[in-house]
Structures are given as structure tokens and as C-alpha cells.
Amino acid sequence: MRPIIKAKVLRTKKTVALARWLIGKHLVRRFPDGREEARMIVETEAYHGERDRACHARFGRTRRTEVMYGPGGVWYVYLCYGIHEMLNLVVGPPDSPAAILIRGVEGASGPGRVTKALAINRALNAAPATEPSGLWIEDRGVRWPPARVEAGPRVGISYAGPVWVAKKWRFRIKPVA
DNA sequence: TACTCGATCGGA
DNA sequence: CCGATCGAGTAA
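^ inputs. structure came back:
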């Protein structure tokens, strides 16, 4: 059996805790030609609820954010700056819009690079992340000590205002100094 | 319909 | 520092 993460975990744990928990898990991609590639997640960011002024759900329920209002365990993929596809994992129970941006995996630092490296685009929006279809997550047993995971402010959200910029909802494995 | 601006990146 | 490049969201 593949160690695929369960949807229940993604719907019950809190958003920020899940963003931290996701570090060390593996993002597994099955390309259209059947080939598979797995990369460890090394950087994430949490976006939680309509109150979070940095979250797309701050405008409420719209065509784009609809997927975030469904149950956790599916992908939310959107286009940013007209160029970059951004990969997010929807988490939480229904009607609780929240998502985690995958900002980095082994060999690809930056959300735009992650999707480019694994050929991910909006065709995967709303697709399940908890079964071996096109893209899913596995727990392959990697455990990083808390001291190796750094929490810091989210990137590129200055429009959200100081209160939300200050939240340390970005997680990444510390570079080996 | 006419704006504005973005959860970024690569090049100058 | 700046341009790319397009669609979501707002205002009208």
C-alpha cells in the first residue's frame, strides 16, 4: 500500500499546523505518459479563512475560491501574474476556506518553479490529493526535528496589511548554514 | 465594460 | 529595478 495521506487528517487538523506538518511529506506526480516523480516538500505557507486579508477567500465565495469552500483534500491551482501556476492544498471542513501554498520541493525553490518542474497547471484544480490519480501526497516517513523547521512571515502579501504580514505562517527547512 | 493589480520570476 | 502576461475582482 502506498502511504498516501488521508483526507480526514486534512479536514480535522488546523491550517497552520498542517502547513508545518506537510514539511517532509512527498509530493508525487504521475505524468500523462504514466511516469512518476516524487519530491519532498520543503516549504509551505498557510492561508486561512475570510478574515485572513492575504487569503483569496477574503472576497468571500467566488468562482475562483469555490474549491476552498469544499472539504479539504483537493488541489487549488490558480494563475498568478498571468504567468505562474500556483499549487495549493485545500484543507479544513466544508465552508471553512483555507489552503496551503506549496512554495518549495526538493530541487525547486519558489511556487512558480514547483509547478513548472512537475508540469502542474489549472487542469488539476479541484482534483483529489488523497488518491493516486495525477498528483497526491505521501508520508514516506521523513521526520524533521522542530529545530530544523523555520517559521517566518509569508511572502509577497504586503497588500494584506501589517497584522497579517506579521503572522508566521510560512514554514521551511532551514538551509544548512 | 474599463479599469487595477497580483500568494512570481528572470533578466538588465 | 523592471517587464512579462492574463484573469479575478471592483466599480460603474
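The beta strands of chain A are 26-30, 36-48, 75-80, 84-90, 98-105, 108-109, 135-138, 149-152, 170-173. Chain A has one domain: 7-172.
thumbs up if we can close this ticket
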